[in-house]
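Q: What would this chain look like folded?
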Amino acid sequence: MTTRLRNTVTLVGLGTVCWAVAGVIAVAANADAKVIWTCVMGAGLGLVGIRYTIRRDRRSGI
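A: My prediction, written as structure tokens:
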């Protein structure tokens, strides 16, 4: 793993964790379903982003 890839995966991972924490807080605060689904989709897309970043690095060498 190159340094730049680690930085990118760390950044995307941090955003994913933030969405997950926001989702837990939204559930605890009894928020609307729209808010909870937004957090779920944000975390899900973050996981896709991590996978995409790692695959892109393997193919092209960011």
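Residues 3-60 form one domain.
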